[in-house]
Amino acid sequence: MKDLLIITNYFPPETGAASNRIFHLSEGLQKHNFNVSVLTPLPNYPKGRVFKDYRGRFKQTSVENDITIHRLWIYASNSKNKLLRLIAMLSYSFSLIWFFMWNKIPETVVIQSPPLLVAFTSVLFLRSKKRKLILNVSDLWPLAGLELGALKKNFSYRILEKIERFNYKHADLILGQSDEILTHVKSLYSKKEIFLYRNYPDFKAQAPNQEIQTSEKLKIVYAGLLGIAQGILKLCEHLDYSKIQLHIYGAGAEQLAIQYLIKNKPELDIIYHGEVSRQELHSVLTQYDITIIPLLNRIYGSVPSKIFEYARLGMPMLYFGGGEGETVINKYELGWVANAGDYAELNTVISNLDRSKLSLKNRIKIQNIAFTNFDFNIQLKQLIEVI
Question: Which residues form the Glycosyltransferase subfamily 4-like N-terminal domain (predicted)?
């Protein structure tokens, strides 16, 4: 078996797209004759506090599904204070350096990016002619931070750009979740070896088997991180509720503000269900008419993994994020799109939505499209050929 190490900031029992993506990758490689180990912080995301069962520990090593998982100390924080978030990233970087000093590192290493500093630490200390470094780029930082308004073009931004370029330069292979990411990498290093690695899910999905009993009001559901990038609070404030009811599942930085809004504006037809497991979520999602996938701003390089997950469930989608994600929705006829940030157009699209496309027949069609075009195992086998 070929030894392979995956370095990531997110891993189960943490929830979310990043955690699921790396979990499926590690499990898939393990099943294809790789001896996989994972380096990750003690679980803390998205609450910004180490989970109860892991507190008071500097390190924990366990074997789960034949994968060795090393969970390292981190100063956990999801504060909006940039200094505290920097300290959190640096703390994990120091834990990684400590681990590199005292442990034998395999010749093949997959490094998740962002966070840039964690990827930089790994690339800096592990680059070697005898080792193959594979950089898995899921978002283009610092560019995404600039588009979100979290960063400004100043000295700090230029430093982050230099770190980004260092990471690309010294990686032997770069995986990108979108064509836009790979185009960006090629614009900087034209000869760099690249591979399109979409965030395809890997789970058994039941076939849609009954018509949804659509009420007078359209039941729209959002499920996922309640973070700044998703802009769920702003979405709640700008939707026209005369014809819809919005259901929300998830947790994150905007959770309290959303709950406060619901409490103080009961005229807004919003129901917050809290956070549920992924398995439970798959069961409840199919009860709704349509899912919504919003981004606060169009983010270059971003293709939300929800697109592929919901397609596998046979769920019609309303995409409100622009960019390559919009292209995927239109190309495969998975639902409807509205221009990112244009809430007037979003409400118009919802108001004029063709309800016949919410039928059982169309849900089965969407699921079959996913089975044919978004197959995790086919993509994994292609990846193994270049590893």
Answer: 17-185
Q: One fold for both 2-201+375-386 and 218-373?
A: yes
Q: Tell me which amino acid residue 95 is.
A: S
Q: For the CA atoms of 323, 324, 327, 331, what is the dihedral angle to 10 degrees?
A: -170
Q: Helical H runs in the chain?
A: 17-31, 82-102, 116-126, 143-148, 155-170, 179-188, 232-238, 255-264, 278-285, 306-313, 323-331, 343-351, 360-373, 376-386
Question: At a CB cut-off of 8 Å and minimum separation 6, what does 3 contact?
Answer: 34, 35, 37, 106, 107, 108
Per-residue pLDDT, 213: 65
Spatial contact of 113 and 138, defined as CB atoms under 8 Å apart = yes
Task: Return the H-helix or E-strand segment holding 247.
Answer: strand 244-249
Q: Which fold has domain 2-201+375-386?
A: Rossmann fold (3.40.50)
Q: pLDDT per residue over 124-172, tens digit each?
A: 999 988 999 999 999 999 998 888 777 888 998 999 999 999 999 999 9
Q: Which amino acid is at 47?
A: K
Q: What residues have CB less than 8 Å from 254, skipping those under 6 apart?
A: 226, 227, 228, 230, 232, 233
pLDDT over 70 at 299, yes or no = yes
Residue 129 confidence (pLDDT): 85
Which residue reads 């034209």 in tokens? 190
Domain assignments of the chain as residue spans, ordered by start: 2-201+375-386, 218-373
pLDDT digits over 329-380, tens only?
999 999 999 998 899 999 999 999 888 888 889 999 999 999 999 999 999 9
CATH of domain 218-373: 3.40.50.2000
